[in-house]
Specification:
Strand content: 35-45%
Shape: globular
Strand order of the largest sheet: 17-18-19-20-21-22-23-24-25-26-27-30-31-33-34-35
Largest sheet: 16 strands, antiparallel, barrel
Distance between the termini: 66 Å
CATH superfamily of the largest domain: membrane protein fhac: a member of the omp85/tpsb transporter family
Oligomer: single chain
CATH architecture of the largest domain: Beta Barrel
Number of domains: 6
CATH class of the largest domain: Mainly Beta
């Protein structure tokens, strides 16, 4: 009997011919346990004959593999007694190596002859038909590579790996056909012919069992989205089973944060359409009742730990709707506070007791002493580019410190916030003794440099082209470097920035800037301006929420191209002045989200003094604050207020040091449309004092949140005036209130941000310049 090809599995049969022949059967006709082949005559068992001692082992058919190597895998050696079981074990061992397509073992007298057919060696692995998935990603996914041994089993395994890769990218109709090209010297080329097929989109997302929240609200909660024509740059509308599991968790978090403590996702089913073009997803949920907070207390085992201090950190109060996320934040805050007060091993766990009849949840924050474990060592791996110290300085814990899970989680957040890594995994392993632990930090580097070209348009600056190069992790040291060039119809700007975030090994952000900008101010005040110079800066945190920045700037500012017939004030200001400025900025941030805040506030106070050398002397002060409040789900109110004042020291304030209000700063008015103006020439003269406020409320617009379109109603109000400069002839210097109201629409489009503002002026002066509509759009690629 003969067979060629690879054997799949370990179900082998031994056929012992009168001459003592044994070989592996094809997987389709094998019988287990080493028995005879089906249909073969049962020969006399050699085991029943007198024992034959093997005097010689001969290997035939081998080309690349040495005979000694083949024999080393077998259960025989010269001098052993021949047995059927040893032959069976040898066959299995040889096939397990994956080196052979066929193996035959026979006894010729006292000699054992092993005939082998070697599996070919892969000359190269190629991919054809792929465009959606890069070849580098495919090569990283498959096991078979050039100069490895070819086997059918590995080919089928790699086909499945490629299909799984395409499924993860949403292409469930992809097919892979492996082709083998025979070459001389028992070599082959392996070509995977791929038919990628279309992306399998999400046809519809439905919910069953929900009554508290609409389907559209729940669709906006999860990460998977329904397919639509405008989502051609999005991948969230393609099917991904891992994303579906994540969506289950997002639904759970959403309901738990709105009082539904018994909520559960019963099932999440994805059904593929008959033509394989789309998935239809159905979430079945069990909402349960809404719970309110009953009693809230703290129970601590530490007699000297101030319980009142911990109670002040509780973010839920009796009568509030139950919110699991606020409980988690309370636990983190308490753990951090206890650790900061010398109780590093404190473990805080919320004990929750449901009263299903009254629908109340009582919460007791139990403070117990956890095991005393110290950090023995911190191992950092995977950082092929970023220096170890850049990662270590983000760790809140150091080697030798008491281990604290909350601080470990905070360390992970700090490392992720760097945005240097696509993956951050922190593990905890036993140390050399029971009271020690080893922390492992494994990261995967990602690109931190960017090259961008932008194109934008606005009613204020007309067409603007931007070009920028930036690197957030320069030379793996965590330093930030950027060069930006902006060319517009009215503004031309170039600047260079460098920042070292840990100057002198401390959390001090030090850096310098080089800049130059020219602005066309002809329409507003009949002149152009040019500024060039450099600056030094230093910033550091003063608390968990506060930062202080110090700076020095040396710059030359010029007014030139003064138009014929310009205001006397403009003509007098023509020329160049050198400003040597020292200043500081204090910023305090209590917002719940730095990007899209729905609660909290922030405030900034800035002062700068010009006169440390140079030819200009003044003191300028600015105060800004913002407050946010969610009045109802998806309804967020905000109140913003800005105040500025500049006065000259021993001289009048120069024209290009004054405040020009309007445009983006004050919707409904043109740039520099508010404030003192020479009525004879219509030139804006700038203000020495201003205040500006905005009351705004964003609200649902009925459009899917995935569209990225937000709307808000606003009113802007304020004034700009001059305080200490003598009145000019025909000058207007009234400190009169101005106000406008309108609608703002913002679209985070696939092409870039688009903003439209419609503003109706409510109160103005006769000489102010108004603007009903403002538009801006931009993109980067």
């Amino acid at each position: 009997m003969t067979r060629s090809g690879a054997v799949c599995g370990v179900c082998l049969a031994i056929a012992l011919a009168p001459a003592g022949v044994a070989k592996a059967a094809d997987a389709t006709g094998a019988s287990g346990g080493g028995g005879n082949l089906p249909g073969a005559d049962a020969p006399a068992s050699p085991a029943s004959e007198p024992g034959v001692t093997i005097q010689k082992i001969e290997v035939v058919g081998n080309q690349r593999i040495e005979a000694d190597t083949v024999i080393s895998y077998m259960s025989f050696k010269v001098g052993d007694t021949y047995s059927a079981s040893a032959v069976d074990d040898s066959l299995k061992a040889l096939f397990v190596t994956g080196l052979f397509a066929d193996v035959n073992i026979r006894r010729d007298g006292s000699a054992l002859v092993v005939s082998v057919v070697e599996n070919p060696v892969i000359n190269r692995v190629a991919f054809e038909g792929n465009s959606a998935v890069k070849e580098t990603d495919l090569k990283a996914e498959v096991q078979l590579q050039a100069r490895t041994i070819y086997t059918r089993a590995k080919v089928q395994s790699d086909v499945e790996r490629i299909l799984n890769l395409y499924r993860r990218s949403g292409r469930f109709s992809a097919t892979v056909d492996p082709k083998v090209i025979q070459l001389p010297q028992n070599r082959v080329d392996l070509v995977f012919e791929i038919n990628e097929g279309p992306v399998t989109k999400i046809g519809a997302i439905n919910f069953l069992g929900n009554s508290a929240f609409s389907d559209s609200t729940l669709r906006d909660t999860i990460s998977t989205t329904e397919s639509a024509w405008w989502k051609f740059f999005s991948s969230s509308d393609s099917y991904d089973p891992d994303r579906l599991n994540y969506d289950r968790e997002l639904l759970r978090r959403y309901y738990l944060s709105h009082g539904y403590a018994d909520f559960r996702v019963v099932s999440a089913v994805a059904e593929l359409s008959r033509d394989d073009s789309a998935f239809y997803i159905t979430f079945t949920v069990d909402e349960g009742p809404v719970y309110n907070i009953g009693t809230v207390s703290v129970d601590t085992k530490y007699a000297k730990l101030d319980k009142g201090m911990l109670e002040q950190l509780i973010q839920t109060r009796p009568g509030d709707i139950y919110n699991a996320s606020l409980i988690d934040k309370t636990v983190d805050a308490m753990t951090f506070k206890a650790g900061s007060n010398g109780y590093a091993f404190a473990q805080i766990r919320p004990r929750i007791k449901r009263n299903r009849e009254k629908r109340l949840i009582d919460i007791v924050y139990e403070v117990n002493e956890g095991p005393r474990v110290y950090v023995e060592r911190i191992n950092i791996t995977g950082n092929v580019r970023t220096l170890d110290r850049v990662i270590r300085r983000e760790m809140v814990m150091a080697e030798g410190d008491a281990f604290n899970k909350v601080l470990l989680d905070k360390s992970e957040k700090n490392i992720r916030a760097l945005q240097y890594f696509s993956k951050v995994d922190i593990t905890q392993e036993p140390g050399s003794t029971p009271d020690k632990t080893v922390i492992g930090v494994n990261v995967q580097e990602q690109s931190t440099g960017s090259l961008s070209v932008g194109l934008g348009y606005s009613t204020i600056d007309s067409v603007v082209t931007d070009f920028g190069i930036s690197e957030r992790n320069f030379l793996g040291r965590g330093q930030q470097v950027s060069v930006n060039l902006s060319l517009g119809a009215r503004t031309r700007q170039i600047d260079f920035h460098f920042t070292e975030p840990f100057f002198l090994g401390r959390r001090l952000a030090a850096g310098f800037d080089l800049f130059g900008v020219e602005t066309d101010f002809q329409d507003e005040a009949s002149f152009d301006t040019r500024t060039k110079g450099f600056g030094l800066r230093l910033g550091f945190p003063t608390s968990e929420h506060g930062t202080l920045g110090l700076r020095y700037q040396l710059k030359q500012q010029s007014i030139f191209n003064v138009a014929t017939g310009a205001s006397l004030a403009v003509i007098a200001a023509e020329g160049s002045e050198v400003r040597s400025i020292v200043g500081y900025t204090y910023y305090y941030d209590m917002r719940n989200d730095p990007i899209v805040p729905t609660g909290g506030w922030d405030a900034l106070f800035d002062q700068e003094f010009a006169g440390v050398g140079g030819s200009v002397r003044y003191l300028a002060s600015t105060f800004k604050t913002n407050y946010y409040y969610e009045v109802a789900p998806s309804w967020v109110a905000s109140q913003k207020f800005n105040l500025g004042y500049i006065f000259g020291i021993g001289e009048d304030v120069k024209l290009n040091d004054r405040y020009f209000l309007g445009g983006d700063d004050f919707r409904g008015f043109e740039r520099a449309g508010i404030g003192p103006r020479d009525l004879a020439t219509d030139d804006a003269l700038g203000a020495q004092a201003y205040y500006f406020g905005t009351t705004e409320i964003s609200f649902p617009n009925g459009l899917p949140e995935s569209l990225g379109i937000s709307t808000s109603l606003f009113t802007d109000y304020g004034y700009a005036g001059r305080a200490d400069e003598p009145e000019l002839t025909d000058g207007e210097n009234k400190l009169a209130l101005r106000a406008s109201a309108g609608l703002s629409v913002y679209w985070n489009s696939p092409f870039g941000p688009v903003r439209l503002d419609f503003a109706k002026v409510i109160k103005k002066q006769t000489y102010d310049k108004t603007q009903l509509f403002q538009f801006s759009a931009g993109t980067q690629f």
